[in-house]
Specification:
Layout (H helix, E strand, L loop, with lengths): L1 H18 L2 H8 L3 H7 L3 H20 L10 H13 L6 H8 L1
Length: 100
């Protein structure tokens, strides 16, 4: 399963990588490029770490979620989506990363 996921997401990471340079990321974050390379080997490692972090936030949203066994799928799915996306909903940039 892991290789399937890697094959699915890697092209999307490549897309994200092309959109920003290390210098632009550092300028936006107000850090030196040296600091960037102390933390990340390259942009792909940064993208993977960001994506993992955002997915972890979504999964944490599900941690306390309860599905009523008597509720229909149509009733349950909207509240599941709201619960999952709640932690990242406050920052539009996070959702843009996940949609890639």
């Amino acid at each position: 399963m892991r290789s399937v996921a890697a094959n699915y997401w890697m092209p999307r990471f490549k897309f994200m990588e092309r959109r920003a340079t290390v210098q632009a990321v550092c300028r936006q974050a107000h850090v030196l490029t040296r600091s960037f390379y102390e933390l990340y080997a390259d942009k792909s490692v940064l993208c993977q770490a960001l994506y993992r972090e955002l997915n972890e936030q979504v999964l944490q949203g599900f941690a306390g979620f309860y599905v009523d066994p008597l509720a229909s799928v149509r009733q349950s799915v909207p509240s599941m989506v709201i619960t999952a996306l709640g932690p990242i909903q406050s920052d539009e940039r996070k959702i843009r990363v996940l949609e890639v």
